[in-house]
Amino acid sequence: MQNLQGLNVKDAYRLHDEDPILVTCDDEINQVIDNFAQYTELSVIFVVEDEGCFAGVITRTDLLDWTRVKVGAALFKPLGDRGKTLRLVSLIHASKVSEILRQETVEAAVSPDDTLADALRTMIEADLVILPVLDEDRHIIGSLTLSELLNRA
Fold first, then answer.
1. Which of 5, 85, 86, 131 has its Cβ near the most Cβ atoms within 10 Å?
2. Rounded to two decimals, what is the model's pTM?
């Protein structure tokens, strides 16, 4: 693998040709469901605040966790992971996008000048395969996938 420390995000990410699929913190979870249903190739949906600033990421797994709680499936199989159990409990009354955001995704973003090594570290820590690329004002200008990153390594 080539040294990721010497390469920057701007060497690997793609600018958005079209507007990315976004939801706001105040949107209902049904908006996330509708977007994942309409755009089956999506693995994540970026969340923004009302001003358009990045607020986090929702994955299909996050939606699955919410669904588990809503249909009671979490009760059928004991969970050995205390963190996962607490996460599921927190989803019991969730109805807004902000209520299903995992805290580790709130800072899961990169800038064009970040190194690819830093981007990979962020992906691993947040358990994400796609990161938003942000400008100085925290607006989304593109995205970086794990595949794009590894192709440059």
1. 131
2. 0.82
